[in-house]
Amino acid sequence: MILYTLRRLGAMALILLAICAITFSVFYLLPDDPALDACGKTCSPERLADVRHAMGLDQPVVAQFAAYVTGIFTGRTLGTTGLECAAPCLGYSWQYTTPVWDLLLDRLGASASLAAGAAALWLVAGVAMGVVAAVRKGTLLDRGIVLSALTMTSVPVYLIAALLIYFVILRSELLPYPDYQPLLEDPAAWAGALVLPWITLAALYAAMYIRLTRASMIETMAEPYIRTARAKGLPERTVVVKHGLRSTVTPILTIFGIDLGGLLAGAMITETMFGLPGLGKLTFDAIGKSDQPVVLGVTLLAAFFITFANLAVDLLYGVIDPRVRYT
Amino acid sequence: MTTTPIEAAPPRSPGRLALARLRADRPAMAGLVIVAVLVALSALAPLITWWTGWAPETFDKSAIDPDLGGLPRGAWGGVSAEHLLGVEPVTGRDLLARVLYGGQVSLLVALAATAITMVTGLALGLLAGYLGGWVDTVISRLIDLLMSFPSLIFMIAVLSVVRDVNRLVLLVTVMAVFGWTVIARIARGQVLTLKHREYVEAARVGGAMTGHVLRKEVLPGLTAPILVYATQSIPAYIGAEAALSFLGVGVRPPTPSWGQMINNARGWFMTDPMYLAVPCFFLGLTVLAFTLLGDGLRDAFDPKEEAS
Amino acid sequence: MILQVSDLSVSFGGVQVVDGLSFSVERGRTLGIVGESGSGKSVSSLAVMGLHRTASVSGSVLFDGEELVGAPAERLRRLRGNRMAMIFQDPLSSLHPFYTVGEQIAEAYRLHRRTSRREARARAVEMLAEVGIPSPRERAGEHPHRFSGGMRQRVMIAMALACEPDLLIADEPTTALDVTVQAQILELIKRIQAERGLAVIMITHDLGVVARVADDVLVMYGGRSVEESPVRPLFKLPRHPYTRGLLASIPGSGRDAEGDGDGGRLRAIPGQPPSPPAFPPGCRFHPRCPLATDVCTSERPLLLGEERRVACHLEGATR
Questions:
Q1: Strand A76-78 to strand C66-67: parallel, antiparallel, or no bridges (unpaired)?
Q2: In this predicted structure, what is the pLDDT of residue A323?
Q3: With 60 as the cut, is the pLDDT of residue B169 above it?
Q4: What is the CATH T-level fold of the domain A102-320, as seen in this structure?
Q5: pLDDT tens for residues A126-169?
Q6: If both were cysteines, with which of A78, A313, B232, C234 could A83 make a disulfide (CB 3.0 to 4.6 Å apart)?
Q7: pLDDT higher than threshold 70 for residue B305
Q8: B299 three-class SS
Q9: Which comes out higher in pLDDT, residue B63 or A102?
Q10: Which parts of the sequence belong to the ABC transmembrane type-1 domain (chain B) (predicted)?
Q11: Helix, strand, or coil here: C67?
């Protein structure tokens, strides 16, 4: 188990390094010159060369990459600008004139709040409704749940967001226009700004989880061990919750972990629609400004979340399912 | 009542059986009909716009009200006999024409990406499964790597820095790069399973060529998962194209696409909700239709016995 | 008489699967119900336990004098696992993969006897010891996948018997096991039955199992009883053509249906058993019966006799 974890951590580091290298070279090979953007509209060739030198862009790509990777662990001084960038250094955003790491930390709060709240909402609602539909399979209730889940998977997220903003904020003024504040500073503003994004994101995923849970639960309830549980004289509630749900949630938790990992930096559309200052919005803005160190940093951070979620889920699986052996 | 079910009818081929089941599946058939209608409408877009008289790029200043900041004249976003689905604010371009031409782009991108991912995934998966050894290792690691990639962010990054390239080709390529992994895993798994089965061994000992084994044993087993996965990928790619265009890195104007129309409509949804609703409706309907069809295909190939 | 079933019929969505079945079991006795798949033997036993959720069940099931058909679900639930218990064909899929065997045995005991967790746990260990699982205390904390097939079926038996039921229904308990293990499990069931005076219904397609454990036999075909008899006379002189066919198909049984001289050879009954929606009219066995006459195709034979009962139009005509 420990050996397995260590080996997986090693593989994770390799994958992250590979992703870093690929993303780095894509930016290097592409004809978009960040020095040109930094230099401004009226840029003489001499000035451009100075800027390139200052940003360290005149170095060979391998040297730049090596500097970048070592910077993550030891911190570094950026080019000849004299700017100190402490470890973990993911480069420097020329747009915000801030180290990328500080930007990421600053924006992570909103993204994590969004992901965590929405995830809790969709997991509870999705699994509960999926179980109810499976247990009442074929009834009107089941049909209703299946139909609404199908509709929800099809409604574009843009429309959900727009409708929520229109009806809840503008029309009925149930909520103020979102003004995100960190949870610890202003809990009311935090929650107020997040309620609608939570609902938007949760609606999308809940529909998926209802379908998943229902299918998985129907399969489980046809298992012979469910018949055994009934033959033991257990109340139907115990049969469904203790015996049925236990097997059903195991595969769902796997998907949940991976979805959550992907969502931390992936809720770009929701964040953009609601103007939430999260990692998705940061990326969106950075792309518009060709702020490549930021894009690279977000890509790496997101890859970290994804690989970490994968590992966590695999390890968790061993706790939930006693049949799993790590080799 | 205990083990083997009793064959009532003479055995039919699994493909025919699945087709028969699919025919009886009403939601799936509804999905198929909607898909067919949407594809026909998009394909016939030039004909339809010729008939309505409004091309997607034709401005119609008479349909908008400059005094109201360019809002369409009339209720429901300017729906009239002239403009069946209303017009775009400010420009007065015909929404029907734009949404149909946008559908062409969305469907084309999704179909192309699906086709490429299926072929690539199948080829690489079969290769990994058959050759094994270092080829398998390389392909499997590549799959692991791509699956850990934050693909949306990376796609946006690449799409935003690449210039002077055909946007549609680029879009399809970028989506296909991340899309082939699932089908490759399925194909590889299928080959590995069959590899260990006796009759494949027997066929090989009997001098049958690898190509023969591939055609006779492996590909038939892969038809069902590929067909089902392809049907499920199409709405995913349509959604991805919309997302990328919405974020401003997909299809560039003046080519219309659903995601781009939604992005443009974002600022107007309070004053002209029809502008947002029309592309959203088409996007949602397409996703719904493909989902219904995909569910039906899955059930048709893998019928879960509806036990009493 | 702990269990008396009369005129039991079960149908699913209008398709009758079991048709007018009657039998009874006493404490300390074993009834073997034999038939091919689709004969309705499992369906009948599940109906006795009240485990059908969508079937319509008619007739009468008297358990210790209490009518179970039409009884409230809650009443049946209190009897299940408590006074009547059941074990199944595949012990691996019949045990929950995520709970230890100790937990699974203790669960029913705790529920029906309202004991503490500790007591139930001790009972589980005791039961594991009783069914012959070595070092039961340690093994109670293990999950089913760590047990061999035979050991799993022992666990199932321990689970079924934890509350000391009066009736045990065993649905093909040895079918999924190795031959040597089969014998051990049957011996275990016999031993426990003798010790406790348990009534057992042994459902099987295997006449060898019946010969080993049953006192009485009921042969089912197409959802109906075709022959009922004490075990010895049945093996000595099977009367229904189907029973004869079954006996003839046992390898090395030295019998065959017509006695035409090639005894000892395995003879399968030609054709397939019918499935419920396609039960033939008249005697349901007639399409496969070598002796069928016109009357067999149209009229249902009645189950006639005293100690031995046979449902065959040819009864009396052939001998």
A1: unpaired
A2: 79
A3: yes
A4: MetI-like fold (1.10.3720)
A5: 999 999 999 988 888 988 998 888 888 888 888 888 888 878 87
A6: A78
A7: no
A8: helix
A9: A102
A10: 103-294
A11: strand
Q: Is the pLDDT of residue B4 over 50?
A: no
One pLDDT digit (tens) per residue for chain A, 327 residues:
788 888 888 888 888 888 888 888 777 666 566 666 666 666 777 777 777 777 666 777 777 778 777 777 777 776 666 667 777 777 777 777 788 888 888 888 888 888 889 999 999 999 999 999 999 888 889 889 988 888 888 888 888 888 888 788 777 777 777 777 777 777 777 887 888 889 888 888 898 899 889 988 988 888 899 999 999 989 999 999 999 998 888 888 888 888 888 887 668 888 888 888 888 888 888 877 777 788 888 888 888 888 888 888 888 887 778 877 766
Q: What are the domain boundaries of chain A?
A: 2-100, 102-320
DSSP, collapsed to helix, strand or coil, labels residue C33 as strand
Residue B29 has pLDDT above 80, yes or no: yes
What angle (nearest 5°) sits at the alpha carbon of residue B62, between those of residues B59 and B65?
A: 105
Report residue A93 as tokens.
């955003």
Domain of residue C158, residue span = 89-164
* C53 vs B contacts (CB less than 8 Å): 308
Question: Could you tell me which chain C residue has the CA closest to the CA of B4?
Answer: C37
Q: Which of A65, A127, A72, A63 is nearest to A99 (CA)?
A: A72
* Radius of gyration of chain C measured on its C-alpha atoms: 20
For chain A, state the CA radius of gyration. Answer: 24
Phi-psi region of C59 (alpha: psi -120 to 50; beta: other; left: phi over 0): left
Q: Is residue C237 part of a domain?
A: no
3-state secondary structure chain A: CHHHHHHHHHHHHHHHHHHHHHHHHHHHHCCCCHHHHHHCCCCCHHHHHHHHHHHCCCCCHHHHHHHHHHHHHHCEEECCCCEEECCCCCCEECCCCEEHHHHHHHHHHHHHHHHHHHHHHHHHHHHHHHHHHHHCCCCHHHHHHHHHHHHHHHCCHHHHHHHHHHHHHHHCCCCCCCCCCCCCCCHHHHHHHHHHHHHHHHHHHHHHHHHHHHHHHHHHHCCHHHHHHHHCCCCHHHHHHHHHHHHHHHHHHHHHHHHHHHHCCCCHHHHHHHCCCCHHHHHHHHHHCCCHHHHHHHHHHHHHHHHHHHHHHHHHHHHHCCCCCCC
3-state DSSP percent of chain B in helix, strand and coil, to 5: 75, 0, 25
Instruction: Chain B: give the shortest CA distance to residue C49, in Å.
Output: 16
Residue C93 included in any domain: yes
Q: A168-180 burial string, b = 16+ CB within 10 Å, else e?
A: ebeeeeebeebeb
Nearest to C272 among B1, B6, B308 (CB): B6
Q: How many domains does one find in chain C?
A: 1
Cis check for the bond before C91: say yes or no (omega within 30 of 0): no
Give residue B93's pLDDT. 72
> Do the chains contact at A266 and B161, CB–CB below 8 Å?
no
The answer to whether residue C246 is domain-embedded is no
Q: Which amino acid is at C312?
A: C
Cβ atoms of A77 and A70 closer than 8 Å: no
Nearest to C40 among B1, B6, B308 (CB): B1
- The answer to whether the Cβ–Cβ distance between A303 and B148 falls below 8 Å is yes
Question: Is B76 an interface residue toward A (CB < 8 Å)?
Answer: no
| B307 part of contact set with chain C, CB < 8 Å | no
Determine the residue of chain C that is closest to B8 in CA distance.
C275
ipTM of the complex: 0.86
In a domain, C97, yes or no: yes
Strand ranges of the sheet holding C224-230, from the earlier edge strand across to the other edge? C84-87, C167-171, C199-204, C30-34, C216-221, C224-230, C309-310
pLDDT at B7 over 50: no
For B120, B148, B181, B188, the CA distances from B139, given in Å and listed in that order, are 12, 14, 9, 10
CB count within 10 Å of CB A273 equals 22
